[in-house]
Each structure stands twice: as structure tokens, then as C-alpha cells.
């Protein structure tokens, strides 16, 4: 059965080979970084690592090894932060080795006071401010999902809505008032008509 345990040198070399490959680390694909490009780069990394003493793996297996190392390192950091919060601060309770620090600097997680935002789900938030003299803010919150990106940032779009001219509002109000007055006049005419008709019928009775 082949040896599947990587050596310390293979692990260090894997981290070194990935250090400057930000697209490969994030797993985000686009016009300048395709799946084919990622496959070629992982195959080159696999060739280098398989030439060293240790285990032999396919490029997909080496990619899975990196994902496992990355997840374990983030877990160690989260455990340390959680333990320090539980004890009110203090020294690290989980020892992060130099290679762990190197991995954390590569994946560049967004830190918010002990909260590690590295998940694939983010929100696109659109904020529209109504310029009508008030401080009302309209927020449209649309959830989106980004591929396995480690440094995905939440785009926030802020747009001002131009102030609506007050003249249009006055015109609408004047039109409504004129329509109401017209209805009132018609009702008065009908009422006087039926009063005269009733009086005429009473005289002829």
C-alpha cells in the first residue's frame, strides 16, 4: 500500500510553491484564470512534490491535501480565539507554528474582533439614500454565493436618489382638488333638480 503521509519537507515545499499563487489559493476563476490553468499549475506542483522523499499523489490529491491543511490551520486559529474569549483574554492556548502563521498570511482571512469571515457566502448590499431632507436609508440585501474564495469582500453599493421636485406634487394636489370641486358641483345640481321635481309633483297632486 503506498505511503500517503506527506513528509515535513513536502508540506513546507507545498506551502512555498503556493505562496505567490493567489488565484490558485482562492480557487476563484475568471477570464485570466481558468480551470485548465489551475489544473496545469497543480500538475506542476504534484510533479515537484512527487520527486521528493515522502508520499506520491495525483494533482487532485495534492489539491485536497492543501485544502485539508488550510482548514486545519483555520480551525486551530479559531480554537485559540474561542479559548481566549472564554478566559477573558490572555496568552495563546493553541500553539501556532511558523508554518501555520505562513498559511494564515497566505489565505488572508478577514478578521472582525475574533470572528473569522472566510466562508463562501457573502452579501451584496445596496444602500440607496433618499435625498428629500430626511435621513431615510433604503437597504436592499441580496445574498449571493462566491466560489471557494478566501479573501472575498462584500461589495457595498451606495447610490443617491435625486430629490423629486415639489412642483409635481403641487400639480397633483391641485388636480385632485379641482376634480373634487367638480363632483361637488354636479351633486349640488342633481340635488336642486330633484328638489324642484319633488315640489312640482306635490303641487300637481
TrEMBL record:
Signal peptide: none annotated. Involved in transvection phenomena (= synapsis-dependent gene expression), where the synaptic pairing of chromosomes carrying genes with which zeste interacts influences the expression of these genes. Zeste binds to DNA and stimulates transcription from a nearby promoter. Residues 4-76 form the Myb/SANT-like DNA-binding domain. The lineage of its organism: Eukaryota, Metazoa, Ecdysozoa, Arthropoda, Hexapoda. Keywords: Transcription, Transcription regulation. Self-associates forming complexes of several hundred monomers. The keyword Disulfide bond does not apply. This is Regulatory protein zeste. InterPro entries: Myb_DNA-bind_5.
Amino acid at each position: 500500500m503506498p505511503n500517503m503521509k506527506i513528509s515535513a519537507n513536502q508540506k513546507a515545499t507545498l506551502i512555498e510553491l503556493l505562496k505567490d499563487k493567489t488565484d490558485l489559493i482562492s480557487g476563484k476563476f475568471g477570464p485570466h484564470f481558468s480551470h485548465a490553468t489551475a489544473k496545469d499549475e497543480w500538475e506542476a506542483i504534484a510533479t515537484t512534490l512527487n520527486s521528493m522523499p515522502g508520499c506520491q499523489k495525483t494533482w487532485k490529491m495534492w489539491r485536497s491535501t492543501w485544502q485539508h491543511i488550510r482548514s486545519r490551520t483555520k480551525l486551530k486559529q479559531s480554537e485559540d480565539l474561542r479559548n481566549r474569549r472564554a478566559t477573558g483574554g490572555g496568552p495563546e492556548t493553541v500553539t501556532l507554528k511558523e508554518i501555520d502563521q505562513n498559511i494564515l498570511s497566505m489565505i488572508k482571512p478577514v478578521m472582525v474582533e475574533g470572528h473569522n469571515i472566510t466562508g463562501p457566502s457573502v452579501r451584496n448590499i445596496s444602500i440607496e439614500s433618499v435625498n428629500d431632507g430626511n435621513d431615510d436609508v433604503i437597504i436592499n440585501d441580496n445574498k449571493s454565493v462566491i466560489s471557494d474564495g478566501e479573501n472575498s469582500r462584500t461589495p457595498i453599493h451606495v447610490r443617491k436618489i435625486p430629490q423629486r421636485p415639489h412642483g409635481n406634487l403641487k400639480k397633483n394636489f391641485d388636480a385632485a382638488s379641482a376634480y373634487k370641486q367638480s363632483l361637488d358641483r354636479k351633486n349640488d345640481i342633481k340635488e336642486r333638480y330633484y328638489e324642484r321635481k319633488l315640489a312640482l309633483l306635490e303641487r300637481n297632486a
